[in-house]
Amino acid sequence: MPTASGTVAVKSRDGKSIKIEDTWYGAFAATSLSHVNMGDSVTFDYTEKVVGANVYRNIKGAVRVVMASALTGAPPSTGGTYTSAPASSTGTSFTPPTKAGDIPIHTQRAIIRQSSLASAVNLCTKYMEIQGKKPLLTEEMVISTVLSVAKRFEAYASGDADVAEIQEELGIDPSIETGPEAS
Questions:
Q1: Closest CA relative to residue 131, chosen from 120, 121, 139, 123
Q2: Residue 31 belongs to a domain
Q3: In the predicted model, what is the mean pLDDT of residues 75-85?
């Protein structure tokens, strides 16, 4: 039985298929891939079935996450290769990179950013209305202000502001990597 391994480039919407490089692999049920996320390095056995001009690659057995994506979280503290027990969810969806070099953004982070940007636009609009007259601001000044406010909202909503506050209280330099992945 052949074995596939590599980094998950895309996970299907229904959670039953993953794409490694240019090849799709399917599972019978989404629960088989519920612990697998885009960016994870995985390995698994599969079978090939040719039906007409189509080749189907069916995952057999457990999909082992060799290294979890830094964007989706770290593996359990025991480290090394592990296999998660299937969960009842269909997994986490991501916005895949559109071209080489793009950094994929977790769907939840993208939602937080979109919401933060809309809230920042609303806040800046209300502020200008309260002033009673339009101040003499350039387009760049308005964009800069809105993005600055949006980034502060995002940091609060995502928990990044809390992490930064705790790091500051503990005297931890946020630019220094810590934990097992830092070595």
A1: 123
A2: yes
A3: 37
